[in-house]
Amino acid sequence: MSFEPLKGVRVLDLTSVVVGPVCTWRLGQYGAEIVKVESPEGDLMRGLGGMSPTGQHSGAYLHFNRGKRNICLDLKKEGARLVIERLIASADVIVANMRPQALERLGLDAKTVRARHPDKIYCLITGYGTDGPYAGLPTYDSVVQGVTGMAGLMLARDGAPAYVPMLICDHVAGEIAAGAILAALVQRKTTGEGCSVEVPMFETMAAFVLQEHLAQQSFDPPVGPPGDLRLLSPHNKPVKTADGWIAFTINTDPQVRAFLEATGRQQFIDDPRFATVAARARYVAEWFEVRGAALTTKTTAEWLDILRTADIAAQPCHTLESLPHDPHLEAVGLIGLEQHSTEGTIKSIRSSIRFEDDYLPRRPPAQPRGADTCDLLREIGYSEAEIEMFASAGAVHTEAAK
Fold this sequence. Notes:
17 helices; 14 strands; Rossmann fold; 2 domains; alpha/beta
């Protein structure tokens, strides 16, 4: 069974790097047609996301831009402005993550677009929103991790701030934006009206941090310091084994007793500091020192067998090298191989979402810059002579076409 609830919906993708492409990739997973508009210089992620055989498609670019049609336009040229207006008219949804000032200069901001096309859904993913003192400032994922206090959580736990070594804010904000667009599409189906959607990364990720860590400061007056003290414990890390590291979590009273029994720490079973959830919350520092102690008497495999027998949530702490070879991921076929038109054999990551016993289909690989320029221009009504005129003027680029 093919699950494509967004089939027939065209999304004009004016985004680059990670947060926007993640958003539109998700919509494409649900069957939307994604038309990615790329500049002659190309999406920065083509090179920023790592090395590639040809230098055209980094691994990250390939994964974030699967299933998208690609048109290359120089929006500084008048001809490209005409083309983009027709593309907007043909689309249901427009997604942008350029700075608001740049969009306004190009006439591609929400206010301008929706004045001409009130039925369109326009989603702007910004660094800081458009109505606060940070509006319009440049930003990247690491900067958002800093300003939202995410890096500061590492300071509280480890004594020094640190970034999560992946673009976690971009991924989260991109997925949030995709969900907001889906909600807007549902509303439009009911009312027939479009709307403007804005997803600011700073506020979105700050809310995530505060929902988790405002904690005792959630009350007025506060009943204690901010922060979930379990998560901020310096012992809240993977635990060393004889040959690697293991990750586990124990929350309930039966799980704690089973863990203490399985790891030979029976002397703590009747310790009143650790006997209940409330007691462990009160003595959180002492409890995490006990549960975070090394387990170097046995190998990771041996501890996994013991902990799983005790029905404790535990898994190996993978590395980037070992994760693709996890037996579960191999069994469910998360990673596959396919041929790319310029890069040769590449690895593809299928959707993790399953509908009616089927995973969403793998979309075609990300394509070279301008691969679909001519086809898309024909679809929106331009003749071969007009396409040649635009190409000669540098308004569109087709030299990378398939």
